[in-house]
Design a protein that fits this description.
The protein is an alpha+beta fold. The chain is 35% helix and 18% strand. The chain has a single domain, classed as Ubiquitin C-terminal Hydrolase UCH-l3, CATH 3.40.532.
Length: 242
């Protein structure tokens, strides 16, 4: 299952916005991408098979972030924009956030948001460490421009998009699904989506996995007939780590 966002136009000519090939909801592809970019091999993404307590108990600990894939229709988009606007003044300055200006890049955006908010817990080197270092004091918009200029991340994204289990759609495809990341910063749970103007503060959190699961359940309930078209991935120990 691939995901993206078609609100930006495609192209790599001067004056045109970029479009990337949508990234499949695949922990294996995500892990290859981040490990190529410098994330420690002991950290990685794995599937969350359900949001009830007995299935959450199967998720390897510690969990540093959740990545949520869901259908994004116009009504859902408008509701999320309103919620982000209402939450804008309740966001900790320590939340690492960037805007999305590359079409169909939301999968990698969610990965960057997840890792960006746990740099103190997961060793990151290589090209990705250099990206975070350059982005440290930039605004969310300037971070987006930095990503547009990063050939290393673009190439790793492209390779991972090609490594999914299903054929990747073309870069300018109108893709229904979209990604968001859930992280805990300064005792609060945040939902990060670069298509929104601000992170969404979901309130106090003492248990990221269970608190994010409850927030995601509410998102799923609001999807109605689309509720089955979702997936959740956890950032924690790599699936093959001892």
């Amino acid at each position: 299952m691939s995901a993206g966002d078609s609100s930006s136009t495609a192209g790599q000519q001067a004056g045109e916005k970029l479009h990337w090939v949508p990234l499949e909801s695949s922990p294996e592809a995500m892990n290859k991408m981040v490990h190529r970019l410098g994330v420690d091999q002991l950290a990685g993404f794995s599937d969350v098979w359900g949001l009830d307590d007995e299935l959450l108990a199967m998720v390897a600990q510690p969990v540093h972030a959740l990545v949520f894939l869901f259908p994004l229709r116009n009504a859902t988009r408008e509701a999320r924009m309103a919620e982000a606007a209402a939450a804008a003044n309740t966001v900790s300055p320590n939340v690492w956030f960037m805007r999305q200006t590359i079409g169909n890049a939301c999968g990698t955006m969610a990965v960057l948001h997840a890792l960006g908010n746990c740099q103190d817990r997961i060793p990151i080197g290589g090209e990705l460490a250099a990206f975070y270092a350059q982005a440290k004091d930039l605004s969310p918009r300037d971070r987006a421009a930095l990503l547009e200029a990063s050939s290393a991340i673009a190439e790793s994204h492209s390779a991972s998009a090609a490594e999914g289990q299903t054929a990747a759609p073309p870069p300018d495809a109108d893709v229904l699904h979209h990604y968001a990341a859930f992280v805990a910063v300064d005792g609060c749970l945040y939902e990060l989506d670069g298509m929104l103007a601000s992170p969404i503060n979901h309130g106090p959190s003492a248990d990221l996995l269970h608190d994010a699961a409850r927030a995601i359940k509410k998102r799923i309930e609001a999807l109605g007939d689309d509720a089955e078209m979702v997936s959740v991935i956890a950032l924690g120990p790599a699936p093959d780590a001892d």
